[in-house]
């Protein structure tokens, strides 16, 4: 078991031994505060983009539903006529090939898995680079008409100035023991939420009334919220199966749930809530799967997230091109399924976004909710 896995499980259990690390957390907090102050007073320089920047991030380690939220926001903004682009650090990609534009043909081992997913789902202009200034410059050079740039997970990247901050809080996990790394899983103290727009990621039964394209239902929430709605399962890879008819797993059946996301338990819980008997196989966030990893899970269907699917598809595409797909691989492909999810936002989220964009003089030519 890796140190990362050990610490992650300790955070989940709020293990008592973590408090031995408190002096390290104090030092981490001091460095974090001094670094932010240095940017605030100008001791460290920061970049102001020529178009408004909206940063979406979190103050905790691990998944919070940020990527589905970005996809939902991009879809909505595109519907409203806003020309929006996205930048990302490109975690898991090859930084030696960055800055780079992301398109439908981009590979996750080059630009990262989340950028591939965002572009595949939205077709939005996107660039990746650890240096966000270079990412923005590259994006605007290729798409100078953009009105708004969404920065994926750049909350702590203070070298980039921002006009809007949305912080996603996972209500299921909360803030743990409310301590900074490594005693707890907070990157910044809870006071960091002050002054930002906080989106609470809740379960479907706790969330506010969703944004609905067919009605103008008024939200009853007293805070901004979202939840993830599971869609129908899809076969991950069709080409090698030709015209074979493969039925999706039925409720009540057992499935292998394989996940390399920040908080795999949410994925397992979702499958369980849909009526499946779940055997969970958690992997580290952004894990580089191999086909051998998947071949070990036999007998039952294998269900993965859309984020993991982009990497597995790349593996299958490479193996198909090299003509190295064995009969075992083809049997595996017949059992690989994706559980897509859609971020459903409360109407108050869209109201808040429209107000923020109005202040920035961004024209929403189709501002009436659809």
Question: Could you describe the 3D structure shown?
Answer:
By secondary structure, the protein is of the alpha/beta class. It is 32% helix and 17% strand. The chain has 11 helices and 14 strands. The protein has helices at residues 3-13, 22-40, 66-79, 108-111, 113-122, 132-142, 264-273, 291-295, 306-321, 327-333, 347-359; strands at residues 53-57, 84-88, 100-102, 126-128, 148-152, 164-170, 197-201, 225-230, 234-235, 254-259, 277-282, 302-304, 336-338, 341-345. The chain has a 9-stranded mixed β-sheet. Strand 10 (254-259), helix 7 (264-273) and strand 11 form a beta-alpha-beta unit. The radius of gyration is 21 Å and the shape is globular. The model is unreliable at 207-221 (pLDDT under 50).
Low-confidence stretches: 207-221
**Which structural class is indicated by helix and strand composition?**
alpha/beta
Mean pLDDT: 90
Count of discrete alpha- or pi-helical segments spanning 4 or more residues: 11
Strand-and-helix sequence, N→C?
HHEHEEHHEHEEEEEEHEHEHHEEH
Largest sheet: 9 strands, mixed
Give helix % range: 25-40%
Roughly what fraction of the amino acids lie in strands? 15-25%
Distance between the termini: 49 Å
* Cα shape: globular
- What Rg is obtained from the alpha carbons, in whole angstroms? 21 Å
Neighbour order of strands in the largest sheet: 3-4-2-5-1-6-7-8-14
Could you tell me the number of beta strands?
A: 14
